[in-house]
Design a protein that fits this description.
The protein is an alpha/beta fold. The protein folds into three domains: 6-83 and 160-229, Rossmann fold; 97-158, no CATH class; 234-287, no CATH class. 33% of the residues lie in helices and 28% in strands. The strands form three sheets. The protein has a six-stranded mixed β-sheet with strand order 5-6-7-3-8-9, with helices on both faces. Strands 11-12-10-13 form a four-stranded antiparallel β-sheet, covered by helices on one side. α5 (143-155) packs parallel to α6 (173-188). It is elongated and about 80 Å long.
């Protein structure tokens, strides 16, 4: 069995009376895009800080892959951190520097120089679609451009593990789509990605598995499909009918020719009604999503905070 890229075991961290991370355990496989989903204050950013050694846990452990250091996988060691790239929610770029200067600076911190540094800077500028703005100060960039540069900085040293903490906060739709496409490209290249977000649609779109957090605790973890099946509930079907043959029983609520009902397999229910001669004028199916899962697990909406 291959060694996971990230292993968190019984991880806990408190700030005074606040238990920010509470006995958290999970692993991320090599090449997997893994989502940490939860509202603001769930403990996602604290978890990232523990993963990169910025904070020390009160209890538990973090192991990042397998290294040759005397304390394998401990993020406190530079040899371990070298394999990790992180794009924090609080932007890690210098606004007084140009995009190119930011990449050169961080590349040098990781030991890059000469032709290799030049090659990586060019690749990152192209990857972030900032090549034409390479000599522009980052402080003049839009929110989306800053986020793209932030992500490029995290990739300058060719890490095998990428940690993205709320990478689309405050970005325009065009930049958000670019970030999604960039993540898809990195996935295809085999990079391991840990992605934190409070946007359920992002987790559904990007992540193979999702861990749902709230108040520092892990509530559930599985593939998106399995989470929806286990906790999402039934689909809601609303429709306007053209005609209803005599004697056909219509499920759920009915007001005139408008019906509303719930079903675990909505298309099968619609097909049954059609086979009995029910003619549909309009049809709308609302399927469960990760918002539904979070509501089921906590009794509140994901963005209630």
């Amino acid at each position: 069995m291959s060694i996971p890229a990230v292993t968190i075991t019984a991880l806990s961290k408190s700030f005074g009376d606040l238990r920010a991370v509470d006995d958290l355990s999970f692993s991320v496989q090599n090449g997997e895009t893994f989502g940490l989903l939860g509202p603001n204050g769930a403990g996602k950013t604290t978890t990232i800080s523990l993963l990169i050694g910025l904070l020390r846990p009160d209890h538990g452990s973090v192991v990042l892959g397998k290294t040759e250091s005397r304390d394998p996988g401990n993020p406190a060691f530079a040899t371990v951190r070298q394999s990790v790239g992180v794009a924090p929610q609080a932007l890690s770029i210098y606004e007084a520097l140009t995009a190119k200067e930011n990449l050169e600076f961080f590349g040098q911190l990781y030991g890059l120089s000469g032709a290799k540094l030049k090659e990586r800077v060019a690749w990152c500028l192209d990857f972030a679609q900032l090549a034409e703005r390479a000599k522009t100060r980052a402080g003049t960039f839009s929110g989306g451009m800053k986020r793209r540069l932030n992500m490029a900085v995290a990739l300058i040293h060719e890490p095998s593990i990428l940690l993205l903490d709320e990478p689309t906060v405050g970005v325009d739709p065009q930049s958000r789509n670019h970030i999604f496409e960039s993540i898809q490209t990195l996935r295809e290249q085999g990079m391991t990605i840990l992605y934190t977000t409070h946007y359920m649609e992002e987790a559904q779109r990007l992540c193979e598995r999702v861990a749902i957090m709230d108040h520092g605790k892990l509530l559930a973890m599985d593939t998106v499909e399995n989470l929806l099946s286990q906790f999402g509930g039934d689909s809601i079907i609303t429709a306007d009918l053209q005609s209803i043959p005599s004697g056909v029983e219509i499920p759920g609520a009915r007001s005139g020719n408008r019906i509303r009902f719930v079903a675990p397999r909505p298309l099968e229910e619609v097909a049954k009604l059609s086979s009995k001669g029910v003619a549909f004028q309009t049809l709308n199916v609302i399927q469960p999503d990760l918002e539904s899962v979070f509501l089921k697990l906590t009794g509140r909406n994901l963005r209630d905070g």
